[in-house]
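YM 10:42: Beta-xylanase sequence, as discussed on the call
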Amino acid sequence: PYLNLLAKAKGKLWFGTATDIPGVEQQDQEYMSILNDSKIFGQLTPANAMKFQFTEPEQNNFTYAGGQEVIDLAKQHGNRYVRCHNLVWVTEVSEWVLDRNWTAEALTEVMKNHIYNVVTHFGDSCYSWDVVNEALNDNGTWAPSVWFDTIGPEYFYKAYQFAEEAVKLTGKDIKLYYNDYNIEYPGPKATGVVGLVKELKRRKLKIDGVGLETHYEVGTAPSYEQQIEASKMYTALGVDIARTELDVRFTQLPYNSSGLALQAKEYYDAVKSCVDIRQCIGMTVWDFVDKYSWVPGTFPGKGGADIYGLGNSNYTRKPAYYAVGDALAGH
Ligand code: G3I
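YM 10:58: structure's back
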């Protein structure tokens, strides 16, 4: 099954993948041939290349080459979409930001300068920007970051204000998203995100969508019904949603065939709950092969999260791949 073709046939904009390019992946021909197959992936997200420390490694010295590589791959192989990721986050902030004691005013200027430069540079090569990434704790309160700790909650609204101003400077239609994890099911964090979107709207700021990251663990993924319920909490506010970082990791390795079947079902439910909601515009896996998954680096001993790489083969498709195909086809 061709995942992107199936997604488009269901009225979605894409089925896509993140990719950690520039990186060793570029020497891997099999990886590149799948990545560049627009029948499978109709959208790319740079897993790292557009983050703060890669785009502004020194103050007001911007480096766009890495992000541009991902855009070029997307455009050259089927004129595909790019979700640009991300402008303001706790992680991957440059040392020069972290090393200084900023006043709120000065750090707000840093944020503004970063957002204006990056957004206007890439323009409408970006279908959308994840403006603020992962602003909340699981209990729905504000998460610490250099931004929050220095500026307070206003950092969040300022980020959207600056992003909107930058989009206006481009004269293009670029969507602005909020992106987070553990918000794919009802709970305090999902309720917190509803509050953020409502407050953005109350302030008449631009917010076009909520990105549901969808990083799950085999055996504990939310049900289809829970995912539909949470999705409707967002779409009821008049914003789009997308599945932005889908993967389902095993907590214990090696996995066995019943584990693979459960993983496949959890992929199926996540994808089906996007297919069944009109305002869910697309689905993106957070890279597609276990070999390059972020999971083992962050959660040692866990893994096997992706749709390719069965049994440590390089590129054999897992049952999860076919389950995604079934969900997209409406089976
Ligand atoms: O490139 C260096 C390499 O030179 C060095 O030898 C190696 C040793 O530590 O690190 C490499 O950098 C790593 C980088 O990924 C590139 O692979 C960083 O340490 C590592 O922290 C970084 O992790 C990324 C993580 O975000 C933190 O920014 C992951 O690749 C990336 O997949 C992950 O993506 C996030 C999303 O942005 C937001 N949602 C959650 C998601 C998963 O954590």
